[in-house]
């Protein structure tokens, strides 16, 4: 039954058929419905193709305001290309290659980059008969282009960091006019079949290529790098694998139910960004292309872990990684991000594709979802269950069954007759509701929304120019063309309160199935020859489809409040830049330990590639988790940015209180702990929003020189301060924790016990243990006390926990604003505070001149870990008032000092002197 999504749908369809009155049942087929690289003609053409050698015509150099232009020529095929090179102010280099005289314009991706990064003026540094070296004002970096064979090197202080075309993989199929005799002549038909230039078949599906072959590819050598990350989404480890002996990574957004683990086929979303790291540099390659894309990775010397035989002693070679990108269409548009440190790389990438949207505070709380909560009474009962069991939560979700026959923007009249009253019931407790809204629209001429979309020309067309139809949840459906700005505007208006009957300001949205999923389409998606706005084929922009729906939905939610309230939209499909629009989750996982384990590197990879607000279905979507797995999943999920429990319609109910008191208590603790850390999470999101730093980070981001941490998947940093190592092994009695940094001190947050860094620790665990360590040198703020949702926690007093480093100092920030509006942006209504401790003095100061936000939040207690001896006195000084002495406790066994009843405001300056 679980073997395939196809089978799964069959069952659901059969169950629903009577109710829905249609008879389309998707084929019962498994993962064979998805292509492997060998099934893809452009991939075959490039991999088998002739070895092309381009020459760069040095005399064609033109220096422009935006950099330089060159011509490239391939002698054999006579292909002529134009290469534009743009160095940007933020230490990125953009390379664009297009045909010199294309017979028609090739697709260039709009809307993903947030603007043209300011460019630098290039100057010729030196010239030989073989090469030209160009430099720009920053001075450190240079670009050298070689005449034959064509190479493009990026150098820093004379050392080559990245070479473009180092293996002569540059490939560019020029657009051609369709040969007249293509269909008629038998001979050319054979030709055509061999290379699938104009027509390609896969299983029963035929793809007619209106523009013929248009693929492109290029390779990069990353010198000195042996660790490469990125390219979500795959259910795989953090470090990308060498693909020499298997499938390439594919980026093609697909609805893959219960995806095979460690598999390189495409999943729901794509970010074509590779991040390479070595101890002294982090670089990135961003390949801006939204068509079907494959990536081959080759490590040299080859990866000893990959081989079966024990690694033999190799000649000391400078390691390198070769990355080969191949895409079906568009142009070559890539950006090399030069770092040099992870922090700078994240900023460079955010400057290109945008920063993480600042989430409304409620969305960082816990979300309770299920396919489906059956009716209004069910929703109220679940909501009450959280109160009864004293488990905080913020949002309850409604899946597709809440609608009237899978017509989004409607409500099932029998099950959800009073949606407004239901939302008000929740809102009284400051809780929210999220409903699903998919991109397919039921073909129903009696439904006004369908008619409006049809008559407004808002649907994608098929290759014959008719409105495209495919099957999805409602049966026969058409698909909105979100790539069209007018369609997006129309769709956004569908979310206005007057149009969306039954919606209130506390209703938020979930975009699912937006790869898009088409049950009877090739690879269960839209045919590549479907046609979008502007006449562009679907193949050009397939990976943008979900991104655009997300954009229109987020705009709709923002606009319904007149632009004052932050939206919250969760999407399944995504692309580079989706971080600007909201949250994503990793799709249909399974309730097994392996899927729990893989959720960590999946989320870390997303965070490395800009998508900070993400998580996996807690508990596993498919199948029933046993109580131990469920508890461990809650514990892990509480330590990831987006925290939502979700389960499929045929699973057993699994609200946290259904498994006995021990399990309820463990889940309660995990969720409460998440709520206590909300001030910390919210601050991390402020930094993701303003500096591009991901809230969750692979260890190497914080410990760039610690090579033993470069392949660590199971533990990671939350901000710079906390090291999380959730338990993901069944029946674990101990957990091995790598505490990086030989100069570091780490404090177990539950015991305050200090450990020296630079070694591994075997930590005994029971079902309640969630291994989290605070780094010496950091300050973390959290809420103390308890409440029912984020709105309660927002008002609770704060505890400031200081972990001293070996110099007895520490610092950290706290960000505060109203938690829901854009006033932080438009009126600078925010407060950023810095807590810093040195020489026995803890200062609370403003960390930003810009913001001003008055709130009543108080710091009630301060805990300082790593205090060597009991102080004699502790004095609190608030400017303009007399110093007062504070009561304190000293826990000698763990060297922890605790100051209670401080009652000092978080937004005013104060000092605490410890004598
Ligand atoms: C597929 C989604 O991945 C899942 O989360 C959802 O419950 C179902 N669609 C039904 O809408």
Automatic annotation (TrEMBL):
Q: Which residues form the Glycosyl hydrolase family 31 C-terminal domain?
A: 692-780
Which residues are in the Glycoside hydrolase family 31 N-terminal domain? 83-295
Record Pfam families:
Gal_mutarotas_2, Glyco_hydro_31_2nd, Glyco_hydro_31_3rd
SUPFAM superfamilies referenced in this protein's UniProt entry, alphabetically: (Trans)glycosidases (SSF51445), Galactose mutarotase-like (SSF74650), Glycosyl hydrolase domain (SSF51011)
- GO molecular function ontology, one term from the record: alpha-1,4-glucosidase activity
The record's annotation in PROSITE patterns points to: GLYCOSYL_HYDROL_F31_1 (PS00129)
One GO biological process term? N-glycan processing
**Entry annotated with the keyword Kinase:** no
What does the UniProt keyword field contain? Glycosidase, Hydrolase
**Glycoside hydrolase family 31 TIM barrel domain segment(s):** 357-684
Q: Provide the family line.
A: Belongs to the glycosyl hydrolase 31 family.
Q: Report the PANTHER family cross-referenced here.
A: ALPHA-GLUCOSIDASE, NEUTRAL ALPHA-GLUCOSIDASE C
| Record's protein name | Glucosidase alpha, neutral C
